From TrEMBL:
Keyword Coiled coil applies: no
Upper lineage: Bacteria, Pseudomonadati, Pseudomonadota, Alphaproteobacteria, Hyphomonadales
Pfam families the record matches: ABC_tran
Name this polypeptide is given: Iron compound ABC transporter ATP-binding protein
Organism: Hyphomonas adhaerens MHS-3
Keyword Transport belongs to the record: yes
UniProt GO MF annotations: ATP binding; ATP hydrolysis activity
SMART domains: AAA
Sorted UniProt keywords: ATP-binding, Nucleotide-binding, Translocase, Transport
């Protein structure tokens, strides 16, 4: 079974401890939201877990293999990664950008095998981009472009997805539509780890919430167990009312 695992993972930079003793696990069937204030260490945790950032201590594995020792192709076949910054070097068509997801199998846009082309078509359809396949990406809205990046990740047909703020700067409608796509991926047998700043979205979609504060994971569990007024006060310094998965922020402490 596909698995992303960290054990006592630490990350340092210029003597600053960015991640301390992080234990995290992701498997198919889970939609895990990673929450915490700016500077809590969320991005460093993701990158070190994937072997993209050097860890100073601890363990990080993908399917039991040290993630730092995986080649880019080996990693891409195990997990699709959407970083915070997703620049496009030039305005290719939607289909060509989605086809970049087949890099894990040695494919290149314009030179797709039948299997590669089928994977690209499936990803485009899954993300509602069928009518936009021939459009240049520089003509798309922010919401449409977010779906293109999701499709590129799904084209790799990796069992796991790690996405760092995939709904940042999107309006509420496109936030929901993007998270609906991620949830459908999980319901289809995948596993997703998503960094979010919107607590309401996390409560609505996540099967588990991992909470970070000051470089540490301080809680990990279902929303019903970990989403409490006390937790929100501790993590974000806000007063809130919580009723199941419904949150009302009342102000700062």
């Amino acid at each position: 079974m596909a698995e992303l695992l960290t054990q006592d993972l630490c990350v340092t930079a210029d003597a600053a401890l960015l991640v301390r003793d992080a234990n995290l696990r992701l498997v198919p069937g889970e939609l895990v939201a990673l929450l915490g204030p700016n500077g809590a260490g969320k991005t460093s945790l993701l990158r070190a877990a994937l072997g993209l950032e050097k860890r100073s201590a601890g363990l990080a594995t993908l399917d039991g293999m040290d993630s730092e020792k995986l080649s880019p192709m080996q990693r891409a076949r195990r997990v699709a990664y959407l970083p915070q910054q997703r620049p496009l070097a030039w305005p290719n068509t939607v289909r060509d950008v989605v086809a970049l997801g087949r890099f894990a199998y040695g494919a290149a846009p314009g030179k797709l095998s039948l299997k590669d082309a089928e994977a690209v078509d499936t990803a485009i359809e899954r993300c509602g981009l069928t009518d936009l396949g021939n459009r240049n990406t520089d003509t798309l809205s922010g919401g449409e472009l977010a779906r293109v990046h999701c499709a590129r990740a799904f084209a790799a047909e990796a069992p796991l997805l790690v996405a760092d703020e995939p709904v940042a700067a999107l309006d509420p409608r496109h936030q929901f539509s993007t998270m609906d796509i991620v949830r459908q991926f999980v319901e289809g047998g995948g596993g997703a780890l998503v960094v979010l700043h919107d607590i309401t979205l996390a409560a609505r979609y996540a099967t588990r919430i991992v909470w970070m504060k000051q470089s540490r994971i301080v809680a990990d569990g279902p929303p019903e167990q970990t989403l409490t007024p006390e937790r929100l006060a501790d993590i974000y310094g806000v007063r809130a009312r919580v009723d199941g998965r419904t949150i009302e922020i009342e102000g700062t402490l």
